[in-house]
Design goal:
Arc Repressor Mutant, subunit A, five-stranded mixed beta sheet, single chain, alpha/beta, 11 helices, D-Maltodextrin-Binding Protein, domain 2
Amino acid sequence: MRPGDLNLLLHFDALMSRRSVSRAAEELEISQPAMSAALSRLRRLFNDPILVREGGVWRPTPKAEDLHTAFRPMLDLWRHASLPRIEFDPATSHRTLTLFATDYVQFAVLARVMGRLTQAAPGIELRVLAARPLLGLEMLDTNQVELIAGYYPEPGASLRTRFLFEEKVVCLVRAGHPCLRRRWNLDTYLAYGHVNLAAHTRYFSERIDRALRGQNRSRKIALTLSSYLACPFAVGNSDLVATVPLSVAKSLGKQAGTVMLEAPMPLPMLTVSLYWHERHHRDPAHAWIRQFIGSMF
């Protein structure tokens, strides 16, 4: 690579991180035509398309992924060495940080955090994106969000994790449900349709189904929801059964007209952690916010 081409590595990193010509241009504060020209030069340089269209979105090629993995440590070291040392003062600093979380995690985490955060750091804005199906940790890779709160069992090598809390799960049925006239056991649990809260990551729902498969059993899914907080109200007006976090059941059960029951089989705790990309690990403001949220738990 000629010395004049070294800046292309920054373009390459932005394109791989953002997976969008326009967002990569915004990151480097250049025009979109200039970024398109850089992509064309990178394609000629590496003899590879770098990014290809799949299903309406840009995906990196295998060769581009391998090259990015090789170049990223050098780029991160360069940024760390060349960035000015900025002291972060939460009382006076202004920063917007984007968080990706389900409504349950927003309910369980932000209710505890925001009162003290607005006092300690009045210039900090948390911008929360609601979790959507098929989106998750890749949003950290593409720099669409800076933090994710939730449960992901296998974060990638470029991601960092901080455990926040764990919570038991319980079952919800409506008051007057016919199951309440029977012995509550696994047979009763499986005799009715279930609400599946799998529309986000599906990981915890898969753990429930795996526990059932271990006993050669399965549940019938009648409703799949994208909202934990809507679940008690759906249950309160039907004969459906739901398996939900304890805090959701206790906080909303009375308003929804539901009854809480213990799970009829051993289930793992629901675990919530923070996840962020290595690129933000040494950012003083980012580190302070992570520590602040973690200290609440």
